[in-house]
Amino acid sequence: MPWSLTVGRLGETAIRIHVTFLLFLVWIWAAYYRSGGASAAWEGVLFVALLFACVLLHELGHVFAARRYGVKTPDITLWPFGGIANLERIPENPAQELVVAIAGPLVNVVIALVLLVILSATLGGTDLTADSLAKIEDPRTSILVKLAGANIFLVVFNLIPAFPMDGGRVLRALLAMRMGHAKATATAASIGQGLAIGMGLLGIFTNPMLMIIGVFVFLAASGEAGQVQLKEASRGLLVSDAMITHFETLGPQSTVDDAADALIRSTQKEFPVVDGAGHLRGVLTRDAMIRAMKDQGPQTAVIEVMQADIPVVEARSKLDAALKLITSAQVPAVGVVDEAGRLVGLLTPENVGELMMLHVARGERPAAQGS
């Protein structure tokens, strides 16, 4: 992830902090300093740091639950708005997805309970009520009160049944126990979008931040549904059913200027770089081309600015496996090769999406060719 700093590792999982989070801490310090001086500023920073430690533990709950089912997590990134565990995939088994989704909120439940026990001991057995907690004047105890409340809020907020919150995945897992994964996703996404619209309308009359959250939830729910629909539609199809067979190629000696000419005379956004034997050396994207044109000049060799290590598959490979490869390898395209390793086709998310749209327009999903 750009602009993120790796601060540690837990097994195969890198723990990262985005630069904006550090800027957020600076902003918190300044805001508290203006209202209460240096001691208030450091107390505010301490509270936020402890809160995000709880967020990190929440994400680790997802990570360890996912590991139980063989799902890897390359990294966790902390942002000002929370944490994101980059799971390699979401288990399709409903029971497994339920465990992975609920693991994070359960961590916050445990943290809140531990903090409430500590506070109960601090109050000498007094009942934990809002009034009794409000009378606590010790700054250290005050932080524990706010931290317990924050963890309770995290549980409630994350269990809202809308993607990308954990509650949306819990809902899908429960629905998938009675219906197919794709239908459960569509239903959960629709519920999430309805809640997002409700948040947006409520935000108009109360807090504008709810409008921002509503838009984020609506788009995330739409994206989740689209990904699952694409995955389901690609089942049973072969790479040869979706690959591009007519495309412009570049040679290792081609320049960025040559690539610009190819961009003008074609509709491609990704240009494979192929050597004399027909083997794929890499892919030059339109964005990388324009960036190189500005920074290094039009005579720069494409081999210097292309994305190398592009995975290749055979034409009779399963389409859904190839799509998973694009996602896991984070590449703009996958090369399709023949038995001799020569490039014969190109597979991109865009042309796969076009294939799926045609299938939907036809009202049926044809069987894979040659299957």
From TrEMBL:
Coiled-coil ranges per UniProt: none
Domain CBS positions: 243-299, 306-367
GO cellular component, as recorded: plasma membrane
Alphabetized UniProt keyword annotations: CBS domain, Cell membrane, Hydrolase, Membrane, Metal-binding, Metalloprotease, Protease, Repeat, Transmembrane, Transmembrane helix, Zinc
Entry protein name: Zinc metalloprotease
UniProt KW Hydrolase keyword: yes
Native species: Xanthobacter autotrophicus
Subcellular location: Cell membrane
Cofactor section: Zn(2+)
Biological-process GO terms, alphabetical: proteolysis
Gene3D superfamilies reported for this sequence: CBS-domain
Active site residues of this protein: E59
Membrane topology field: Multi-pass membrane protein
Transmembrane stretches, start-end: 14-33, 39-58, 98-123, 143-163
Residues given in the record as Zn(2+) binding sites: H58, H62, D166
